[in-house]
Amino acid sequence: MGSIATRYWLAQLPGWILAALILGAAWRFMGLPGWAALAGVALLVVKDVALYPLSRRALESPPHTGSGALVGAQGVAQDGLSEGGEGRVQIGAEVWRAELCDGVGPLSAGTRIRVEAVRGLVVHVRAEDDA
User: Fold this and answer.
1) What is the pLDDT of residues 67-103, one digit of tens each?
2) Is 90 exposed, middle or buried (0-12, 13-18, 19+ CB in 10 A)?
3) How many whole angstroms separate alpha carbon 3 and alpha carbon 6?
4) CA distance 113 to 121
5) Average pLDDT of 32-39?
6) Is 84 left (phi over 0), alpha (psi -120 to 50) or beta?
7) Which letter does DSSP use for residue 66 in this model?
């Protein structure tokens, strides 16, 4: 849905409208000076402009969660892996069950690997040099 800036400003718009309605009602029915109502809405807009650089970083990338976040991760084979067999690889601080991707030859323990896919709780890997 559009650029990050567009999404941010569209998310701020309802707050601006609500503030304008509340401050407009306060001006009309409660005697709030008009300049104060306008200043209130202006301050809200200035606050959102000032916070945009901080918020942009949070909106730029989707969160990486779940096992799918492992795709592309690098690690080290703890066991030797042969085609059709299973072994263990360390990715960061975690140890995962691993299988070789189709068409990849055997890997010895200590080989740097890259995760190509995750199926259930098993990562499918290939040597970092082949990635």
Assistant:
1) 778 888 999 999 888 877 789 999 989 999 999 988 7
2) middle
3) 5
4) 17
5) 95
6) left
7) S
The C-alpha angle 79, 84, 90, rounded to 5 degrees, equals 30
pLDDT beyond 70 at 131 = no
Closest CA to 100 of 116, 112, 111: 116
Task: Identify the H or E element spanning 41.
Answer: helix 34-60
Of how many residues is the chain composed?
A: 131
Element (H, E) at 90: strand 86-91
Q: Which two tokens stand for residue 83?
A: 């085609």
Residue 36 pLDDT > 90:
yes
Domain with CATH 2.40.50.140 in the chain: 67-130
CATH architecture of 67-130: Beta Barrel (2.40)
Q: Is the pLDDT of residue 1 over 60?
A: no
8 A C-beta contact, residue 92 and residue 70: no
